[in-house]
Predict the 3D structure of the following.
Amino acid sequence: MIGESVRKLIPFERQREEDDILAKITGGERVPQFVTERRRKDGSLIHVFVTVSPVLDSHGNIVGACKMARDATGYLASQKRIEESEKLFRALADNISQIAWVADPAGKVGWVNRRLEEYTGLTAAQLEDGGRESIHHPDHLSQVLARYYESMETGAEWEDIFPLKGRDGQYRWFLARAHPVRGADGGITHWVGTHTDIHDQREQTDKVRLMLHEVNHRTKNLIATVQALARRTARGEGDDAFVERFEVRVNGLATNQDLLVRGDWREVDLDELVRRQLGFLGEDLGQFEICGPSAALSAPAAEAIGMAVHELATNSLKYGALSVPAGTVTIGWEIDRPAAGLHLWWRESGGPSVRQPESRGFGTTLIAELPRRRLNAEVVLDYAPRGLQWALRGDGLLVEEEAAVPAQ
C-alpha cells in the first residue's frame, strides 16, 4: 500500500466516507471512532473501527492524517448476541401475564414490563413520581409501603397481597413478590419483582368459604324446617296421609338445595328463582302473593337474592307469618331498565307479633349483609310488630333489558 491511495481499501459504496473524512481533517477536526467496512487483499470485506486525526507540523500546519483501524468483527458479533438476548428478554417480559419490574437496592423502580402500563396506565417514571400512591388503595397503602421498604432494608424476600387500581378505576387483588439479586461480594445489586393478579381466585376462595358457612347454617335450618314441616303436616292428617305429605315436602326441600351448587349460572329468571327457593313449602305457597315483571338476574345477584329469599322463608316458617295458617307473605319487585336496577320486597302479615332479635346470627348476614356487600345494594330489614318487612334496591343487577311482561 506504500505510495497507493487509501481509497484502494475502501469499498465503492463507502467512498463518500473518505470525502467526509478529508473535509474534516482539512478543517483541523478529529474524526471520532466509527464502525465501517474495509477491503482485504483477497477482496473480501471486514468490519473495522476507524479513527482519524490530523497530523501537524511544527508550525501547526496540516501535513497529513493518521488513520487507525481495528478489527470489529468480534465486537459486532457480541453486540448482535446482546441485541438478540435483549429481544428475547423483552418478548418474555412483555408477554407474561404478571406485572414485572426491577428496582435498585433501595427499592426505586427503574424498569417495568408493559403489563404495568396496560393495567394502570403508568410508566416506571410515573410510578416513582407519586404514581405508586395513586394506584394503591388508601386502606392498604401505609402497610404495603412499610413492609416493602422493610424488606429493602433487611434484604429479605418481599411478599404481600393487596389491591391495585386499574386504569378503569376498579381495584383488583394482586400477589406481589420481590427477590434480591446479589453480586460477587454478597451485596444487593437490584431487586426483581412480580405482581400476579389473583382477584378471581380470591373471590372464588371467599365464595367457597361463604358457601361452607352457608352449608353449615342450612344444615341446621334444614333440621328445624323438617321438624316444622312434620308438625304442620301432622295437623289434621292420619298416619298414611302424614307420611305421604311429609315425603313430598322433604323432597321439595332437597330439590331446592340444587341452587347452592349452580356455580355456572349465566343468568336466572327472577320469578323462577323465587318460586324454586320457595318450592320446599309445598301447598303453603298458597299463603304467598308473588308479582313482578320479567327480569333476568346476573349470577352474583341470583346467588345473593336466592339465599336471602330462602332464609326469609325459613325464618317465616319457624317464627313469622308462615308459622300460622292465616299468615300471608307478599313478594314483589319493580325494575329500572336504564340502570339495570331492581327493587325487591318481602312483606309479612297476619302472623305472630314480631320483635327485634336480641342477637344477629349468620341468618342476618344472608338476609342483609351479603346483598349489601356482594351487590352494593341498599337493604332494609324492619322487624315491625305486624310482620317482618324486607326490601332490596340496587343497580346493575339485571343481565339485559327486556320488555316488561307480568309474571304468570
In short: Residues 402-408 have pLDDT under 50 and may be disordered. Residues 199-234 form the longest helix (36 residues). DSSP finds ten helices and 15 strands in the chain.
